[in-house]
Amino acid sequence: QVQLQESGPGLVKPSQTLSLTCTVSGGSISSGSYYWSWFRQPAGKGLEWIGRVYTSGSTNYNPSLKSRVTISVDTSKNQFSLRLSSVTASDTAMYYCCSGYYYRGDSWGQGTLVTVSS
Amino acid sequence: ESVLTQSPGTLSLSPGERATLSCRASQSVSSSYLAWYQQKAGQAPRLLIYGASSRATGIPDRFSGSGSGTDFTLTISRLEPEDFAVYYCQQYGSSPGTFGQGTKVEIK
Q1: Which of B23, B94, B95, B99 would best serve as a mutation to test chain A binding (most A beta carbons within 10 A)?
Q2: What is the pLDDT of residues A55-72, one digit of tens each?
């Protein structure tokens, strides 16, 4: 199984754009038939699927976030990224990157906490 | 969008006992694309079961999943100390891959 590691700022100001990167190791992001996904989890709450990208670059997003989300893949760096615009306090959460089939997470990164605050 | 409802919210059991967790979907889950995850405090979720009944790699056989359509069950045959955690179900066959609210299995 591949390993995944999230990175990015832990603090984002309201109305700004949250940007996270997931680095994949132990395998090529271009091989296999995995989707590369982002999930999030506010403290003490449940899990939410944000969106996914395939190695071809095709994407799918949660309709509740679609207007603010962009997920992209950089096969040369074995990375994929999340951008979430116009953030508010309700976007404060632990963000996880994952690999998996369909809309599920087979392998998970350890997560990175993003706080939206001025 | 399918809404998943898990019950009970909390299950208080002793090590060695059997745990039965329920997940009910508001719409039929296509092709039994139903997964179960385990999440321990401060850790990322871990995939336990996919396809309603297939164990993920490395998952002990005390974990089993069953069900189809709208009703699914996760059973832990004999609870080990490391099994006390929160468990989530997820339908992953259609966007947006919705989760249940979780069942906490705690030590009695």
Answers
A1: B95
A2: 889 999 999 999 999 999
